[in-house]
Amino acid sequence: MKLLSKIFSFVFIAALLFSCTLPAQPAEEPAPQVEAVDTVAPTATVNAIVAPITAEALTQAAPRTPTATPAFDTYEVSVPAAACWMDSGVSVKTGQRVTIYASGIGNTNGGVEGSNSDPNGQQYICGAIECPVQGVGYGSLVAKLGSQKPFFVGTYFEFTASENGTLSFTVNDWECEDNSGAFELKINVD
Questions:
Q1: Virtual CA dihedral for 6, 12, 15, 17, nearest 10 degrees?
Q2: Most buried of the four, 14, 23, 164, 165, by CB within 10 Å?
């Protein structure tokens, strides 16, 4: 116990001397606050002055961010608005959950103002029999899986595959050759 007392005295005196001999430092911005996640409580075998310092040091350590392996495959696909039923190359099996996120701007009328839309489509409803999906806006993003009937995707769509197949995409327009722009897709399959 005498040895521990001598060590403590030496550390205490060294700390006092060190703090008194430091030159004045210019004022700095306050350090960012770190929230304590876990602290170490003092025990009977730990010196009462050392324990709070150790606990403080532990709470100032940078938090670790856990990394997890995603349970799905992610694909990034660009769908030109002028592409009539573009094969995405994304194969899906029966029972897999598919989530599609889309963004971008397409034009369905040769660049004419007012014919631009995001993947949700224009306010003008495509009712022509030649439209892949009737009853939704011109220029909206639509898809089909294998031999299934085409369906509206918009900016977000999630479904469970009822058959094996490859995802294909187009814009909802009866004539796609005069279209311009593109939609950028992120597709998760799990």
A1: -80
A2: 165
Residues 145, 100 contacting (CB under 8 angstroms): no
The DSSP 8-state label assigned to residue 184 in this structure reads E
pTM of the model: 0.62
Say if residues 60 and 34 touch (Cβ distance below 8 Å): yes
pLDDT per residue as tens digits for the range 105-149: 999 988 888 899 999 999 999 888 899 999 999 999 999 999 999
Distance of CA 143 to the CA centre of its chain: 23
Name the range with the highest mean pLDDT among 66-80, 121-135, 153-167: 153-167
User: Is 73-189 a domain of CATH 2.60.120.430?
Assistant: yes
User: In angstroms, what CA-CA distances link 57 with 40, 66, 115?
Assistant: 10, 21, 60
